[in-house]
Amino acid sequence: MYANWCAIADNVPMRLLDSPADWLVHLWRRLSPWPGGKWLFSFMLARAVPYTGTLRAQVLAVAPGYACVALNDRRRVRNHLRSIHALALANLGEFASALSMMSAAPRGLRMIVTQLSIDYLKKARGRLTAEGRSQLPATITTETEQMVFADIRDASGEVVARVAVKWLLRPRA
């Protein structure tokens, strides 16, 4: 699916975009500078990753090892306490960690989440932003684990939750 969108976004040979990480970074660089480009990128990503797409989060920034994602407070993501649901927060943090990981990943790497934990620090209300940060070596030749962290902040800048995601990384066979 991502190969079709890359072909639409640019006439880059598909062999240069052989992984989802390559696709992600390439598409972000092509679309984000244009009016509506961040929205289009977020929409396309939501289509490619259906469960995460249910959040309707907006990607605000992607750079090597960094991602910032926003979530608007609305009824669909709320709980009975009139705050944003715990699993919506976990999903938002995992999304930010995945984008930061993919934007830092060397070519030919497979990644999968093996553990996720979250600390809820206060009720989450209003527009939230999650920032994911990851640091990876330039090459990964053996299976390894990597922790990626994401802080979720409310509109006042207070951290409402901290997410820790353990990723299993391995080179493509």
Based on DSSP secondary structure assignment, what is the total number of beta strands?
6
SSE succession = HHHHEEHEEEE
User: Could you tell me the mean pLDDT?
Assistant: 84
Structural class: alpha+beta
Largest β-sheet summary? 6 strands, antiparallel
Q: What topology, given as strand order, has the largest sheet?
A: 1-2-4-5-6-3
Rg for CA atoms: 16 Å
Distance between the termini: 21 Å
Could you describe the 3D structure shown?
With 173 residues, the chain is an alpha+beta fold. Helix content is 32%, strand content 31%. A six-stranded antiparallel beta sheet has the order 1-2-4-5-6-3. A hairpin with a 2-residue loop joins strand 1 and strand 2. Helix 1 runs parallel beside helix 2. 32% of the residues are buried.
Keywords summarizing the entry:
173 residues; alpha+beta; six-stranded antiparallel beta sheet; 32% helix; 31% strand; disordered N terminus
SSE order and pairing:
Elements: H1 2-9, H2 20-31, H3 37-48, H4 50-53, E1 58-63, E2 66-71, H5 86-104, E3 109-120, E4 128-133, E5 144-153, E6 159-171
Antiparallel strand pairs: 1-2, 2-4, 3-6, 4-5, 5-6
Question: How would you concisely characterize the structure shown here?
Answer:
This protein is 32% helix and 31% strand.
